Amino acid sequence: MERRVSIIGTGITKHVAYDVDRSWKEMLAEAVFEALDDCGLKPTELQGGVVAYHGEAMLDTGNIGPLIADTVGMEPAGVTGISVACAGGAVALYHGYALVASGLCDAVLVAGFEKGSELYEYVETIGNSSESDYDYNFGLTHLDWLGLITLRYQQKYEMPDWESVVNWIEDRHWFARRHPKSFYYGQAMPSRRDLQRNMMHWAAARADGAAAVILTTEALAKRLRKPAVYLDGLGFSCASAYLPHRFHHAWQNPEADIADSELTRTAADRAYRMAGLKDVGEINLLEISDGSPGVTFVELEALGLYPRGGAWKGVLEGAHGLTGRYPTNTHGGSIAFGHASGAAALVSVIEAVAQMRGEAGERQISGPVTTSLCQASGGSNSNNTVMVLRRE
Amino acid sequence: MSEFREQVSRHATYSSVKSWRERHGRYRLVGSRCAQCEALYFPRRPSCAKCEGRKMEPYQCAHTGTVVVGWPQVSLVRLMGYADLPQRHVCIVRLDDGLHIETEVVDVTKDKVRPGLRVGLVFRKLRRESNGNEQYGYKFAPLQDSEQAQADAAE
Amino acid sequence: MTDRHAGIVSYGVHIPKLRMTVEETLRIWNNTLLAIVKEQLLVSERVVLAPDEDSITMAVEAGRQALDRWAQPYGQIGGLFLGTCTNPYDSRPASTILVEALGDNRRVHCADIQFSTKSGVSALQIARAMVLCGAMDNAVAIGSDTMNRHTAPGTFQEYVASSAAAAFIVGSEPEQIIAEVGPFETVVSDLSESFRLDGERYIRSGGLSALESGVGLFKHVSQAVTEYLKKYEYKPADFDFVVFQQPIGVVPVALCLRLGFSMEQVIPGLIAYEVGDVGSASPLVSLALTLDQAQPGQKILLASHGFGTGADVTVLTVTEKISEYRRTGPSVEEQIKRKEMVDYATAMKYEGKYMKVAHALTAWL
Q1: pLDDT number for residue B154
Q2: What residues contact B133, with CB distance under 8 A and at least 6 apart?
C-alpha cells in the first residue's frame, strides 16, 4: 500500500552569480543542513537521497551520490545523482517520493544544485543536454528553443505586443525583491523599458545555488513541529528532446505545436487524478517553469488555467500577481529569484511549502494556501513534471 | 595545438567516430522510414514510435522546406565554433515531406527570416570537433528565385 | 576503346555570395593604384568566403547542382575527382567527404588532385580518361579553390584572390552528352611562379602570371594552344568560344590578342572582372558560363594554366542534347550577380586572418 508522503523540511542557499568562496559540496551542505534543522531530523536519520545536478562536466566530478552521503553525514544511506536539465529538482522529488511511498525509506533527502560559474563552457555543457548530434553540434542552444517557442506563441496567437510579457517579468521581479535568498534581493526594480529590452533572453538570472527538502511519511510528519505539506499528486512525462518533434511526431496529433505543452498536459492529467483535484480552480498558488515568456504561457494553458492562446490575456489582466486570481512564482521564478538549474524546480516547491506554512513574509498570499500546483519543465520542454501539494 | 608551453589538461574529447556515425544525417538529412507503416523520422532512430516496428530504413528527407518560425540567435550564448557570424538565424523548418527540423538559415538578412520563407539545404562547415577534425553538415538558405520558379513549375 | 564517348553530361557551379570591392582593399592598404587594378589587371571585386565555407563545401554545392541537373541515379557515378590546391586538410582526403555528402554510393573511385590552380582541369582530364578507357561510365570532376583564404593581407594578390567551385559530370552515354570533350594537349614546366610549403598558410607569388614575363602563364598557354591548333589542324576562327584560365581579367584578353582570337570568342566566358581569381575553378566556371550560352554544334577551346604546372588545352564540341539539358538551380550569371558586399574588416574576420587564441575557453573567452 502506498504511503502518503510529506515535505517536512526545506533549505535554500542565497542564489548568486558566482559563489566564489564555496565548493559545490559546501553549498549543497548549507541547503541540506537548513532543511534538516527546519524539521529537526539528524543526517543519520536519512535513509536515502536523490540529488539533481547538470552532469559531470559541470563540476569536473561524477558519481556524486557517495560524495554527498559523506559530505552531509548521512552515510551509509544510498544517494543517487541524477541529471535531468532544468527539471532536475522536480524529478529528484518524484523519485524521492517513490522511495518513501513504497516503504523503502522513511526519511529521504531530495536536493538539487548548480555551480555553473565554475565552468567556462557552461553554455556548451547545458547546450548538449538535447538531441546533441542534431542541435548542439549545429550550434543550436536551449536559448534558441526558448526564443523560438516565444516567437511561435506570439505569431500563432497574434499577441499584439509584449505588454503581457513585460507584466509577467515585472511581477517576478517584484516578488524576488522580497525574498532574501533571491538573486535580486535588495536591488532596485528595473524599468519596464529595460525589462522589455531583455525580454527574449531573460530566460533566467543564471545562478549558483542549492536547494534541499526532506521527505517523510505522514506518520512521522505529524510528530514534527511544523505543519505538514503533502505531495498528493505527481506526474512526470518525457518525450524526444529534439525541439522540432514538438511540432509533429508520428505518435502525436498533426496539430501538435511548440506553442503548446503536450507533455505538461499528460503529466497534469495524471497528477490531478492522483490528487483527486477536480477543478484546477481549487488551487491557491501556482509555481511553474518560466524559462521564457512563451514557455510560461504554454505551461499555464497546459495546466488547464486557460484555453490555448489565452494565457497572455490572463497575464495582461494581472491574474498572476500577489493579489491576482492565481498568484504564481511568488519567489520570483527563474527570471528573478535566480536559476540554478538542478535546484530551480525544487526552489519552486520550497516556495509553495513556505506559502502553505504562512512563512513567506512580504510575499505571503492573503488567505490560507491549502492547495498548490508545481510544474517544471526541462530541456526542450522534453521533461515535464506536475505536482499537487496539499496542507491539512 | 596548444599555445601554452605545457599541454592543457581537459576531458571530453570525442572520437571522430562519434561524428562519422551521423554523417549521412548531417550531410544529407538522412533520417528513418518505418518499413512497416512508412512513418518518417528525422533524426534517424531504431524503432517506429507510431507502430512500434523495429525495421527502419534510411530515408533522405526533402531538401527544401518552409520556415515555420525563426529567431535571431542571442549572441551571449554563442557556442564555440559558431562565433564568427555576427548574426545567426535559427529556424524551425517544415520540410516538403512534412518533417520538421531545427537549422541555421544562412545567406539571409533579418527582415527575411519570417514564417513562410522558402529555403533549401546547403552544405556548410559546422565547426571543428574537440578532436580537431572539421565537422560538416547542412544549413539552409533562401531558395533563389530561379529555384523557386523551377519548384513551382515541377508541381 | 575507339567507339567509346566521353563528354560532359552535366555541370554545376557554386560562387559564394559575399564580395568585396577592390576599392575596399585599396582603402586599407593604399599599396597600388585603383586604375592599375580595375583598368589594367581588370578586376573589380572578389569573393569573400563566409566562415562556414571552404573548398569542400563549395565543391559539394557545385556537385549537388550537377547531379540534380543530370537526374540519373547517384549509383551510376563510378568516379569522383576533386581538383583543389586549397584542401582544408593537408592529409585527410576531401573527395571522400564529397562522395558521401553527394549521395549514397560508396563504390566510387575517388581522389584528390592537387596540381596548383590547374587541379580542376587536371581532374577533368582524369575523369575523361577514366570514362574513355572504360574504367567507369560516369565520373565527377570538380575544381574548387579558396585562393582568398590563402592569400596574405597586404599583398597585390589580395585584390583578386577569390573562391568558387565548378563540377562537371563526364559520361559515356551519347544520349546524355551535351558536349564531347576532345583530346588534351599539355605543356608542363617546373617553374616556381607561386608556392606554399607544408604548414604555411599563404601562397607566395612573385606575380609572374600578371606579366608578359616571357616565362609562366603566357608562355605555357601560348605554347600549348599553338601546338594544339597545329596538331589538330585548327585555325583560331574555328571556335565559337575560347575559355582561358583567368587569374586576373587581363589574362584572357591579352592571350586572345596574342594568339589571334577575337574578343567575341572570349567575352562570353569572362568572369575575373567580377569574381577575381577562383583558382582551380577559374577555367571551369568560365566553361560553365559558356555552356550556359552555347548552341548545338558550337566549338569551345579550353585552355587552363596553373602556377608552376604548365597548361592544358582541349576542345569541346557542343551536341544537340544541350537543347534538352535541364538547367535547374541558379545559372552562373545569376550566381555572379547574386551578392552581398562586405567591408575589409569583415573579410579578414571571415577568412580567419585575425590572430586568435589557439586554445579558446568559450566562444568569447
Answers
A1: 67
A2: B16, B19, C92
According to the 3-state scheme, what is the secondary structure of A229-246? EEEEEEEEEECCCCHHHH
pLDDT, tens only, B10-41: 778 899 999 999 999 999 999 999 999 999 99
Residues of C in contact with A124 (CB under 8 A): 362
Helix (H) or strand (E) holding C57: helix C55-70
* Other CB atoms within 10 A of residue C213 CB: 14
Closest alpha carbon within chain B to A246: B100
Question: In angstroms, rounded to a whole number, what is the distance separating the alpha carbons of residues A213 and A345?
Answer: 12
Distance from A213 to chain B by nearest Cα, in Å? 32
Q: Contact A373/A267 with Cβ under 8 angstroms?
A: no
Identity of residue A317: E
Our CA-based measurement puts residue B79 at a distance from the nearest CA of chain C, in whole angstroms, of 6
For chain C, helix (H) and strand (E) counts, in that order, are: 12, 15
pLDDT of residue C214: 74
Residue C30 in contact with partner chain B when CB distance is under 8 A: no
Give me the mean pLDDT over the A70-75 stretch.
Answer: 97
- pLDDT at position B3 is 61
Element (H, E) at A390: strand A383-391
Q: How many CB pairs under 8 A join A and C?
A: 8
Q: Hey, are the CB atoms on A148 and B69 less than 8 Å from each other?
A: yes
Between residues 25 and 54 of chain B, which touch chain C (CB distance below 8 Å)?
27-28, 30
Catalogue the long-range contacts made by C203-212 (C-beta closer than 8 Å, 24 or more residues apart). C203/C85, C203/C147, C203/C150, C203/C151, C203/C157, C204/C152, C205/C155, C205/C157, C205/C307, C207/C156, C207/C157, C208/C307, C209/C247, C209/C248, C209/C251, C209/C305, C209/C307, C210/C41, C210/C156, C210/C247, C210/C248, C210/C250, C210/C251, C212/C254
Which tops the pLDDT comparison, A180 or A123? A180
Q: In what order do the strands lie in the sheet with B56-60?
A: B40-41, B30-34, B56-60
Q: Is the ipTM of this complex over 0.90?
A: yes
- The residue among A341, A335, A77 whose CA lies nearest residue A215 is A77
A245 pLDDT more than 80? yes
> A201, B74: Cβ pair inside 8 Å?
yes
Contacts of B108 in chain C (CB under 8 A): none
Nearest residue to B70 via CA among A133, A244, A284: A244
CB-based contact (8 Å) between C89 and chain B? yes
Per-residue pLDDT tens digits for C263-319: 999 999 999 999 999 999 999 999 999 999 999 999 999 999 999 999 999 999 999
Q: What DSSP character marks residue C215?
A: S
The percent of residues above 90 in pLDDT, for chain A, comes to: 80
pLDDT band at residue A355 under the 50/70/90 scheme: very high
* Distance in Å, alpha carbon of A120 to nearest chain C alpha carbon: 6
* Chain A contact probe: residue of C357, C362, C364, C365 with most A CBs at under 10 A: C362
Outline where DSSP puts E strands in B9-152.
Answer: 30-34, 40-41, 56-60, 64-72, 89-95, 100-105, 118-128, 134-142
Tens-place pLDDT, residues C307-357: 999 999 999 999 999 999 999 999 999 999 999 999 999 999 999 999 998
Measure B39 CA to nearest chain A CA, in Å: 7
A201 contacts on B by Cβ (under 8 Å): 74, 76-77
Q: Computed from CA positions of residues A66, A68, A74, A78, in that sequence, does the dihedral angle turn out positive or negative? A: negative
One-letter amino acid at B17 equals: V
> CA–CA separation, A324 vs A326, rounded Å?
5
C361–chain A Cβ distance below 8 A for any pair: yes
Q: pLDDT tens digits for C162-218?
A: 999 999 999 999 999 999 999 999 999 888 889 999 989 999 987 766 666 778 899
Task: Look over chain A and give the mean of its residue pLDDT values, rounded to a whole number.
Answer: 93
